[in-house]
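okkk here we go again. third time trying to get the NAP bound version out, last two times i messed up the smiles copy paste (missing a bracket lol). double checked this time i swear
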Amino acid sequence: MKTALIAGGTSGVGLSIAKALLRKEYEVYLLGQNKPKGEAIEMLLNKSFSGNAHFIRVDLSNISEVKSFSKNFSEKHDKLDVLANVAGVMEETRKITKEGFEKTFAVGYLSAFVLATQLAPLLEKASHARIVNVAGVASFVFKAKLDFDDLTFSQNYSSFKTAITTIHAKTILTEILADKYASIGVDVNSFHPGAVRSNLMNNMGGWKGLLFRIVGKLMSQDSKTGIYASCSAELEGVTGKYLDKKKIIDLNFDNDYKQQLWDESEKLIRSVS
Ligand SMILES: NC(=O)c1ccc[n+]([C@@H]2O[C@H](COP(=O)([O-])OP(=O)(O)OC[C@H]3O[C@@H](n4cnc5c(N)ncnc54)[C@H](OP(=O)(O)O)[C@@H]3O)[C@@H](O)[C@H]2O)c1
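finally!!
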């Protein structure tokens, strides 16, 4: 039986991927921080998918918790076929975690870095495993760029800018990991999920939050590209790409920029036990 781990699998894009993989009889582990919500989703999914959905509570903004989760998960499993990094938040005001990270960046990027690096041995044990990272067209439209001197986003904080910069980092990480994991047979791609019904703006106040909630109700519950990226057989061997619908796109980030992100990420992750 194939196994998938979906960071952020309890709503929006992640839940859509979870349902598709369950339909294909994967054993699916859903990570989220909200225990009652996660357990309710697990119960609902298991009514249709014979006990193959498992919720695990992990706070992905807490990097030492993500590290210990990865260690425990590796000890309990023989292999992992799909790792989907789709957790994300948008914080109206800048929040710093007790480990000193900006929260959006910790949930959306640093946790993905830890899961992808620490679970690599488990992914290597599966045949043609894949990592899929949620990205987004907005990071290109608005030309997101990382400021390596300010990865806590202390200057002119904006929830939108921080969210798209976080996604931009995950898109770069995709290319880095694709190179690193080519020799172990793990494909790594990022994808634009499309417009998917979401809880992302639930905490957002004012007209922006209201507008998003109204428009959100009209959005699809499925991320077709997320599902395609996670389990389409025709993508076997495709790696280091950005997927938008069925378009397979080369982004080719600058090598020095990629190296700098890798070095900074390792430094940040090493700084917590
Ligand atoms: N929806 C779209 O149309 C769209 C379009 C482009 C890009 N994206 C990107 O896709 C990502 C996911 O968006 P979404 O629409 O799926 O959002 P969502 O419906 O709010 O789902 C977010 C998921 O992340 C989890 N999560 C958030 N903070 C967490 C934490 N600290 N620890 C553990 N899990 C945590 C949530 O679980 P809990 O509820 O337990 O916190 C939930 O499962 C975001 O980065 C977003 O920018 C979405």
